[in-house]
Amino acid sequence: MGRAPCCDKNNVKRGPWSPEEDSKLKSYIEQNGTGGNWIALPPKIGLNRCGKSCRLRWLNYLRPNIKHGGFSEEEDRIICSLYISIGSRWSIIAAQLPGRTDNDIKNYWNTRLKKKLFGKQRQKQGSRKGKEINSNMVISNNNNNNQFPCWPELPILQPIPYSNDEPRFNDHSSIRKLLIKLGGKFSDEDQPINEATNPQYPMDNSLLMQPIYQNIPINMISSAPIDNVLGNAQYNMDRAASSFTAELEHMIQNNQQKLDGLEFLYEDYMLIDKSASTSGGNLDWESMNPFVLPLPPINDEGFQQGVIFQENNTTPQ
DNA sequence: AATTTATACAACCGCCACGCG
DNA sequence: ACGCGTGGCGGTTGTATAAAT
Questions:
Q1: Are A170 and A159 in contact (CB under 8 A)?
Q2: How far is CA A236 from CA A6, A94, A128, A224, in A?
């Protein structure tokens, strides 16, 4: 026997909201607030709706200062950067874009941005096609911590000019901090966050610190909780890994692959090393994107072993 | 003009974490 | 410690509209 539903789906209205319903919900919340209980809200207002539906309608459409459509290039870049960095954590991405909802960004990514990025990608795939390897983290054994997952180096970016003072991912340090908190590091110098280094992060060390990455599929690596600033939510790397699109994984896996269509993401970021772009032709993904590092052979079990992290990477801040 | 296909986005579904009793 | 109710989240579906045939 399953758990009871939050409402009787047969006796509540579903589907698009009418202007009258919107008006009722909006005016009530503006005057009285939600009362901290969405489930109890509809009867108070006289709405024959599920509480969850009311919450969604308010958060995604009725609440003040919501922007719809008209995503700017800057917003595109932020979404792309964060998606590449942390995957489909839409609520976190939305938190960096004032006025945008996670639902909006998710829809925008799925319907437009993804196509904008991958639409012109060649069909050609490398020999590793089909291997479900998460390449967002790489393993370095060139350190004193045995096997520990490392995030690949971020592209070298110029600071993104923002028009206000809201906390944003406006430089590498923010993204670095986030990714480190998620359970990895960029180099030997980074201290992975754990109870020893920061008692505020009571993470599951049995997952994070296990020294057996060498023999587990990369996409099974787990992560630490994210901190309170980002919503006090706990995430694990399994979820993050599984949320990355296959397209992105395949692109990053194969460092020989050229990526038509991704130029827009990088040209505006003004990659410091533009020497490779002077030919006028397509850039090699490897030369264009520091995310892509040479990968060691992957055996038939889908395991990935050995040094991946490049020795000539710049030392992170 | 009618039909089919593609696109955009609102809304729903189900799972999971958290707080409270 | 446990169970329950709820909020929050990401994935998916449904529907209206536009574009193509």
A1: yes
A2: 27, 19, 25, 6
Nucleotides of B under 7 A from a protein CB: 7-14, 17-19
Asked whether strand C has any atom less than 7 Å from the CB of A9, the reply is no
Distance A35 CA to C17 C1' (A): 37
Average pLDDT, consecutive stretches of 10 residues, N- to C-terminus, chain A (317 residues): 60 88 91 88 90 92 86 88 87 90 90 73 32 34 39 41 37 51 49 40 31 28 30 34 46 40 38 31 32 32 28 32
d(CA A135, CA A123): 19
Rounded CA–C1' distance between A108 and B5, in angstroms:
20
Instruction: Give pLDDT, residue A83.
Output: 87
Dist CA A273 CA A288 (whole Å): 8
Residues 227-256 of A with CB under 7 A from strand C: 231, 233, 242-243
pTM: 0.54
